[in-house]
Amino acid sequence: MNNPKSTPQHCPAPSFIALFPLFLFLALFIGAGIYYQQQGVDFAFYQLPSVVAILPAIILALTLSKQKLNTAIETFIEGIGHANIIAMCLIYLLAGAFAAVAKATGGVDATVALGLSLIPSNLLLPGFFLIAAFIATAMGTSMGTIAAVAPIALGISQQADIDLALMAGTVISGALFGDNLSIISDTTIAATRTQGCEMKDKFKENLIFALPAAAVTLVLLTLAGQGSAELAAQEIDFLKVLPYLTILILAVSGLNVFVVLTTGILLAGLTGFITIDYSTTSFANDIFTGFKNMQEIFILSMLVGGLAALMQQQGGLTFISLKIEKVIARFAARQNKRLSELGIACLVSLTNACVANNTVSIIVSGNIAKELADKHAVSPKRSASLLDIFSCVIQGIIPYGAQALLAASIFSISPLAAAANAWYCFVLAAAAVLIVSLRKHSS
Description:
Layout: H1 20-38, H2 50-64, H3 69-80, H4 83-104, H5 107-117, H6 124-139, H7 142-160, H8 164-181, H9 186-195, H10 199-224, H11 238-252, H12 257-275, H13 280-293, H14 295-313, H15 316-329, H16 336-355, H17 358-375, H18 380-397, H19 402-411, H20 415-420, H21 423-438
Helix pairs in contact: 1-2, 2-14, 3-14, 4-9, 4-12, 4-13, 4-14, 5-6, 5-11, 6-7, 6-8, 7-8, 7-19, 8-10, 8-18, 8-19, 9-17, 9-18, 10-18, 10-21, 11-12, 14-17, 15-17, 16-17, 16-18, 17-18, 18-21
């Protein structure tokens, strides 16, 4: 989120107190998760909706503001209405609509079938990593990918006598690989919009980190060499996979994301008209269903935008930036850009560990990351890439994250066991730190 237009051009005085609303939001969200986890409730960290947890924080921010109440409310509303926030929300809606229509017309099942037909019987673990990676890249959702692939992976694991925790971790790994790269993922949308870069540029930057990490993960999974099973022949419908392939190609080519997603929605609907008994009414209802699926992140993005505007006006973001600057200033000037990148990585990692939601962590830390990147000439594509990468890393290795909880519930294992076997996330973290530390920073 860039600075709202109403924000004064001068830098507000740093204020630790201005951060109290953010701390309240995190305390409510995390506290509720810990409480429900102790009560043995499934998906404990998701029982208190984030859009409700943030409301007391907004009230506190308005109370702490030194502006008159009406002026403070105007600052909040202008933060909600900032162009980046509105664009982000519109992209969420289109991405949700595409995912819903493509799923309803058989795109997910066709993509899974295509992947299963290509897996050698003695390479099941690396094969399922690649299937999950492709589906998540196409669908833009790690949760949807896990829900689609995990039941199939469970059955094959039992047939081939593969360790269930290892297969669960493999599916999580592939799902987060794709989620991190997908141009319709909410994490990508949030990262690119808050940092002000093109999706194709962020995608190419992510490949620098993701491809080496994926290659190492595939080698490790191949060496694990657990079991083999003959997979039943799959009926493949390439036409239903076409919408996914189309939006990937169009997005990487640099076409406007609104045009890409609109094209994908129309193509997915056309595929349904051709291949199944899919009516115009069903098409319209599925689009609306996709909109509804994005309701929480849509509302949260707007509310966080308003909260960020209040904290920025009160000096909270200035306070954090100065603290990070003091750490960076202890090192040689030539190290500033590298340390800034590592600072962005640490910022979003800590936030994600608290909120257990990679998209929320990007939205919450996006403003601070943008200020830090601008001050030390870190390119927008690099800061966006780091936000997405490290939020996905943490999301994959925390046992209270939705991905580990979902996979664990399907495989009937401990979420800790599932997260501990998400090898790609650990490899990606190591690869990212190594690349940031060693690569040249001339651009």
